Amino acid sequence: MSDLMSLTPQKDTIKVELINPVDGKPLSHDKKVMWVERLLPHTGEYKKSQYKRSQKYIKAAQKSGNTGDVDIDLYQAEEDRIEIMAETTVAWNIYFGGEWIKYTPEMAKEIYTKAFWIAEQLQIGENEANVFTKG
Q: Would you say residue 70 lies in a domain?
């Protein structure tokens, strides 16, 4: 017998330990592992962040008169992706520029832009998240 409750998300965040993109080893400083915790896509806060940006692309398509010709600024789209990642980050343990950095959405945008490889690791963590088990 099945219960649909067992097929609803049991956790709302994923914690990703960062890996050095050069040597494949876990990133740490002073024996403290670096990690990022983010909301998962099924959460309301994540959807709100994503939909806020999607809305402008929908409006641009509507303005074009439904001709099918919509110019999308790919640079702006990448900035939107980084902003969504920053807004959906809830906590982290990051050593950057010689100090442990307190999380803020603004600082997250800066770090995710400069250390661009983090985005891929966070996306992999999000894709591999097992939301149906607690923990």
A: yes
pLDDT in tens, 61-80: 777 665 666 677 778 888 99
Angstrom distance (rounded) from CA 10 to CA 87: 21
Asked if residue 103 belongs to a domain, the reply is yes
Asked, for residue 63, whether it belongs to a domain, the answer is: yes
| Number of separate domains in the chain | 1
Query: pTM to 2 decimals?
Result: 0.84
Q: What is the mean pLDDT of the chain?
A: 88
The kind and range of the H/E element at 29 are strand 28-29
> Where in the sequence is the domain holding 94, given as residue range(s)?
4-128
User: Interhelix angle for 74-87 vs 44-63, to 10°?
Assistant: 160
**Three-class DSSP category at 99:** strand
Assess if residue 135 is contained within a domain.
no
3-class state of residue 23 by DSSP: coil
- Kindly state the average pLDDT of the residues 45-50: 94
Instruction: Give 28's strand partners.
Output: 33
- List, edge to edge, every strand of the sheet that includes 13-17: 13-17, 35-39, 89-96, 99-101
